[in-house]
Write a structure and sequence with these properties.
By secondary structure, this protein is an alpha+beta fold. The chain is built from 5 helices and 5 strands, in the order βααβββαβαα. Helix content is 37%, strand content 24%. The termini are far apart.
Length: 157
Amino acid sequence: MIRYATVEDVPTILRLIRELAEYERALHEVRATEDDLRRSLFGPEPKVFAHVVEHEGTVAGFALWFVNYSTWTGRHGIYLEDLYVTPELRGKGYGRALLAELARIAAERGYTRFEWAVLDWNEPAIGFYRALGALPQDEWTVQRLSGAALRALAEEA
């Protein structure tokens, strides 16, 4: 069963985020708290959304996403920030079902893109995405400002 996450799912979502970060060798980078997720997902004007998939009444995985925009198409799209299914339940179609639900939302709303990033060493995920028909965008690289560099540039404003 796929459904929008509820405020009651927040502790589980945070636990799964931490599991994903551990798998991606970046657990030390997780700073999010339950309060952060509650505020972001369920505050007065949420800018990020989450779906969960259940297995026998418990959350087996989640997809956390937000709406982006393409100036080239003049339309919105979905950016998938995180997709995670617990290791013991992988291969049962839960990840595909979460992605299919987001694709349905995008198509229903007239969005033109559904995008995400994947670590270049995560061969199982890359193979999964290729099987869905996803194509790499090799000519684009992700750029990020954070920490001191972000603050330094902000001071110029």
